[in-house]
Amino acid sequence: MENIQPYYRIPYLPAINETLKRNLAAATEDDWVDVYSFRTLPLDVESLVKEDPLLGWLNAAHPFSAGILSMDPWSYYDWHTDEKRGASINMMLTCGGEPGHYHSIFSHDRDGTSLTGNFVELRYQPEVYYLFNNQVSHSVYNFEKERLVFSTEFREEKDRLDFNSLGPEIIYALGGEKPSWR
User: Fold this and answer.
1) How many angstroms separate the CA atoms of 161 and 118, rounded?
2) CB-CB neighbours of 123 under 10 Å
3) Per residue in 62-115, pLDDT tens?
4) In the chain, helix, strand, coil percent, each to 5?
5) Per-residue pLDDT tens for 22-63?
6) Are residues 158 and 134 in contact, defined by beta-carbon separation less than 8 angstroms?
7) Which of 62, 78, 81, 142 is most open to solvent, judged by the fewest CB atoms within 10 Å of its CB?
């Protein structure tokens, strides 16, 4: 049976947090673009991979683009699976403050017709990388503060790179045994 975990906390200390904060502080309104209905600040991947060894390895193995996704207070991103992305690396940003109140939830039993179901919540630890399974139905509900998330998009689409193939590669790259998640 295939593993359908919705996310994996990557045991690694990101080295790009200060760079992301500087990018946010320097950004003008014109720098932000709409990507998948998120207000997004595109990032220079080349500078990120020079600072962070894991991102450097990851971009060499699976090239990606990256950005900071902004979500307004009192908004939601409805249930969906991503059209192209099989997996992504996400990280909640706090920019020196406390993270706001939000819920990132996954459900394995969403069929589009039922009014009820079960879910699993991803309770992000701020400034920690998570491998995100974009092919498990997910939704986000944001409350009183702007929500900022670093996120990647791999050039390889879901049929070529997914959560179950990338997870073991990351664990192995970090010095662990290469597990089988299938």
Assistant:
1) 27
2) 10
3) 999 999 999 999 999 999 999 999 999 999 998 666 778 899 999 988 877 888
4) 20, 30, 45
5) 999 999 999 999 988 889 999 999 999 999 999 999 999 999
6) yes
7) 78
